[in-house]
Design brief:
Length: about 525
């Protein structure tokens, strides 16, 4: 499954980079032992904490992949689905854990984890739900910190910190707590801080105890987890701060580890490398029919676990760390709530956000489609994307447009074989009006679906905002169209894009064939 692509185009040359997870189901014997790593030769600061976050108290079936060829999963259950659907049963996860008390107090009263994560989110400028997600996977929201808050491998507290990662974020966390946290004196931390020098305490010999190690405190640990994730996300090529998978695994594996995993997804977990050994020690759920051959399989399993937890915490919302694409995040949340999808990460694959107005219109259109035609599925195929990045006058490159396609009965409406022939014919000579152009035709079922969706778009096009435009590129491909789709746009200065389709919509309204819809 490709989830992110980047294209670099120059005359006579194009380079494409992509990121994804390989959906592949295999079977190997189950191993109940957590694999420990020792004597590692690491080259990046902080990599020591990419190792062996102990999940055995939470999931008692982590195992080491054996060698051997892949076998097809007899139950045809994908790795992602297995980890997603079995998370609650395997871990006994409860949302009520967030209502329990942390070990940090404010004004003499213990902060619940919900309140603690809310305050950490405010302090760090981060979605508090991102912090919650890490806390679940690291210690099941404090339920499995380990004996005396230290796990068997020496990792400490709520977010299971080791000395390397703690050292990496010591300065930034100290600055936030001593210089940014409002009413610092109202907090009572469960571990001591160096108030004289305004810094956290880090023991020479890890982990020590609460008098010498500030990371035993839940508030400190949560702030540190955010800062560590920010640090790592900034160092991992292609990692997205809006992706909960990237956000958590950059914390779990460290920047060196996660960078290696992303770059080497075809590697085998049985290759004997330090990285693979660590991944085996933090393996997703296994069963007699679901195990892992490649690094990509491992990623896909973790994606299922992480997504399940996030879906429980925020059923309809994305996670973000100071997200550079808030409008795209909102649109993705809408897609998720409706059961619709985005092709790869095409809404923002050019690296920039879409504008807020096109997000509002796209979300409103999709919600209306879902209301009237619940069996259809929509997929966004372009937004502020790399394909349109170098197009001279495209409304996509300014973040003002969205392209999407229709699925009927689970199947995308296919582009007819004569699509480009008709397109070329319509633009081969003098400019033709819409009525003069040859229309692309489809099967009766697909014609009906295209008409139904088009009427909804037309209803918004005749509303009170003339800046909203659309193109029916199912039936009337534009000059550079490569496949069947609808194109919608919103530009403050209006322009004449889709003028013929707007006129067609007004005529349909006057004839009583469509209903007018508004966003504002």
């Amino acid at each position: 499954m490709i989830i992110k692509t980047e294209h670099h185009i120059t005359p006579n040359h194009m380079t494409t980079k992509f990121k994804g997870v390989r959906i592949k189901d295999v079977r190997t014997p189950l191993n109940q032992k957590v694999f420990a790593i020792k004597e590692l030769n690491l080259t990046e600061t902080g990599d020591s904490d990419s190792l062996n976050y102990d999940i055995s108290p939470v999931v008692n079936n982590s195992g080491v992949r054996n060698t051997g060829s892949a076998q097809t999963n007899v139950n045809n259950t994908s790795i992602y689905d297995y980890n997603y659907k079995n998370y609650e049963t395997k871990t006994k996860f409860k949302l009520s854990y967030f209502d329990e008390n942390s070990n940090t107090k404010k004004n003499g009263t213990a902060l619940t984890y919900n309140k603690l994560f809310e305050e950490v989110g405010f302090l760090t400028g981060t979605d508090s739900n991102f912090v919650k997600n890490i806390a679940v996977h690291e210690s099941m929201v404090g339920q499995n910190k380990g004996t005396n808050d230290v796990n068997p491998l020496g990792y400490v507290g709520l977010m299971q910190f080791g000395k390397g990662a703690a050292t990496d974020v010591n300065n930034s966390v100290s600055n936030l707590i001593f210089n940014k946290l409002q009413n610092l004196n109202s907090y009572t931390f469960d571990a001591e801080l160096d108030t004289t020098n305004k810094t956290l305490k880090l023991p020479a010999s890890w982990p020590s105890d609460k008098t010498n190690n500030s990371f035993f405190d839940d508030f400190v640990s949560a702030v540190a987890a955010v800062e560590y994730a920010k640090l790592n996300l900034g160092k991992v090529p292609s990692a997205s701060p809006t992706d909960v998978l990237d956000g958590y695994l950059s914390h779990q594996q460290g920047r060196g580890g996660y960078k290696d995993i992303i770059a080497n997804q075809t590697n085998l977990l049985s290759d004997g490398s330090v990285r693979a050994s660590n991944m085996n020690g933090n393996q997703p759920f296994t069963s007699s029919t679901v195990n892992y051959n490649t690094w990509s399989d491992w990623l896909n399993g973790w994606q299922g676990k992480i997504q399940f937890v996030y879906d429980q915490i925020v059923p309809n919302g994305p996670s973000f760390l100071n997200s550079p694409t808030p409008n795209a995040d909102k649109l993705r949340a809408t897609l998720k709530s409706l059961g619709y999808r985005e092709k790869n990460k095409e809404i923002t694959s050019a690296g920039q956000d879409i504008n807020s107005d096109i997000e509002k219109y796209a979300s409103a259109i999709f919600k209306k489609i879902k209301q009237l035609y619940p069996t259809y599925t929509m997929e966004i195929t372009a937004g502020n994307d790399t394909f349109h990045k170098n197009s001279a006058n495209s409304s996509h490159k300014t973040g003002d447009a969205i392209d999407f396609v229709i699925y009927v009965n689970g199947q995308k409406i296919p582009t007819p074989s004569n699509y480009k022939t008709i397109r070329n014919k319509n633009y081969s000579g003098a400019t033709l009006t819409l009525a003069q152009q040859t229309a692309v035709t489809y099967s009766p079922q697909n014609e009906t679906a295209i008409t139904n969706v088009k009427k909804i778009i037309q209803g918004f096009a005749v509303g009170k905002n003339p800046q909203f435009k659309f193109l029916d590129e199912y039936r009337y491909p534009s000059r550079k169209a490569t496949g069947s789709h609808f194109h919608i746009s919103y530009r403050e200065n209006g322009g004449n894009e889709g003028a013929a389709f707007t006129a067609q919509a007004i005529a349909a309204l006057n004839a009583g064939q469509i209903t007018e819809y508004t966003v504002w």
